Known about the structure:
The chain is mostly beta strands. Helices cover 10% and strands 44% of the residues.
Amino acid sequence: xxxxxxxxxxxxxxxxxxxxxxxGRPRTTFRLASTPRKRxxxxxxxxxxxxxxxxxxxxxxxxxxxxxxxxxEPLVLFADLTIREWQADGGRSGKDADLVAHHVGPxxxxxxxxxxRPTRPVRQDDGAADQQPPASAAAxxxxxxxx
Length: 147
């Protein structure tokens, strides 16, 4: 089993499934289908072989992906790739390509997106109750303004 960090783009092939695992760690999984296209000298295109990836996201990324990503949407991912061999009862065997995503975003070649920063609790060092950051602090400086 070798691990390699890659960038891959494709379309979401299954609706993402979000669960909270033991210890409260969020996890979202889905399948991604990636089909390369080749342009020929006459200007025509043809599709290559589609590769399917099992994608897993953890933590805040998992929560944001579950709230933002849906089947059929084009994505770009930066992830760790692991190729896993398997053997089923009855002698069937194969290989799965598993991705643990570090970054997920829409493929803006195929559409437009609007970014929305989620509001998350900010913990106080003194153990006081969680509070929300002011909207201006959460958004950061406006475009063209100094930080």
